[in-house]
Design a protein that fits this description.
single chain, 319 residues, eight-stranded mixed beta sheet, four-stranded antiparallel beta sheet, 11 helices, globular
């Protein structure tokens, strides 16, 4: 059953008095208790999509059309006060850089207890006790002492664990994690990913995980969608994406991953870069970089085609 259903989402930003479309007719669903990954290069619309779900896009942006159904309720039609009751309680978000997300002048204990007391009718002592339990669950040593620490006194990995504790504080149904391990070294990243998986299985939480790193997707995802220049180009189970990729962009991303066999070979890459919002090419946005481009690709944005159950691809080569 779908917990979150995004349909035909289109989001734009006013840049230099022009409306630039950052997300174009994006549709996907997140089922209860699953880990759904959105993957793609920087600038492809992943973060804008996640911020739109919580209605946190910057002032110069707007949701132009589409619906965002959470537990059957369209979040695009709710008031700001109604959204405040959902943010943190039913849907939590973990941002990329915890040092900028945590308030430097408050202890981590006060920031976690505040998240609890804003949404639940509990005493300060009850909130503090839950705070200690949460810090213990996310792997912070000596939680009774560390809740009096300030963010700058913690390592990067510990700060990210605090952000996970805040996200879990009110037992949400959905957690959105926007590249939460990007700033961490490889060892700590593996620990945080393992923690995500463990907590998701324990609490049966749905996780919408945003990343540019396919190695992360391989470790934790149940289903994956690949975004490019504001549109979804491929979606399917993690096995479909890794073993039967159908879109040239997905294939390019997978071929760009370092492999042992490349020890004496040059690492492959996708030439060019994601187009600017104000200068997108006509037709399929990937066609200037695509090794299999046809004339049709320069004229028409392809429709989604279903290859098999749940595996969908947007590519003119399938016509």
């Amino acid at each position: 059953m779908d917990l979150l259903l995004v349909q035909d989402l289109r989001v734009g930003f006013f840049i230099e008095e022009r409306l630039a479309i950052a997300v174009r007719d994006v549709s996907f669903s997140v089922k209860r208790g699953e880990i759904f990954c959105i993957v793609g290069e920087s600038g492809c619309g992943k973060t804008v999509t996640s911020l739109s779900i919580l209605r946190l896009i910057p002032p110069n942006g707007r949701i132009i059309k589409g619906s965002i159904l959470f537990k059957g309720k369209d979040l695009t039609k709710l008031s700001e006060e109604q959204m405040r009751n959902i943010r943190g309680k039913e849907i939590s978000m973990i941002f990329q850089e915890p040092l900028t997300s945590l308030n430097p002048v408050f202890t981590i204990g006060s920031q976690i207890t505040e998240a609890i007391m804003v949404h639940e009718d509990v005493t300060k002592k009850e909130a503090t006790d839950r705070c200690v339990t949460l810090l213990k669950e996310v792997g912070i040593p000596e939680p009774e002492k560390r809740l009096h620490d300030y963010p700058h006194q913690l390592s990067g990995g510990q700060r990210q664990r605090v952000m996970i504790a805040i996200a879990l504080a009110c037992n949400p149904s959905l957690i959105i994690a926007d590249e939460p391990t990007t700033a961490l070294d490889v060892t700590v990243q593996a620990q945080i990913l393992s923690l995500f998986k463990e907590l998701q299985e324990k609490y049966k939480i749905s996780l919408l995980y945003i990343t540019h790193d396919l190695s992360v997707v391989a470790q934790i995802a149940d289903r994956v969608c690949v975004m490019y220049s504001g549109i979804i180009v491929e979606e399917g189970d993690v096995e479909d994406i890794f073993y039967n990729p159908a879109h040239p962009y997905t294939k390019g991303l997978l071929e760009s991953l370092p492999k042992r066999s490349y020890r004496k070979k040059k690492l492959k890459s996708i030439p060019g870069s994601v187009p600017d919002l104000l200068s997108r090419p006509e037709g399929c946005p990937f066609h200037p970089r695509c090794p299999l481009v046809k004339e049709l690709c320069k004229e028409k944005i392809p429709d989604f085609k279903e290859l098999k159950n749940g595996h969908r691809v947007r590519c003119n080569l399938l016509e």
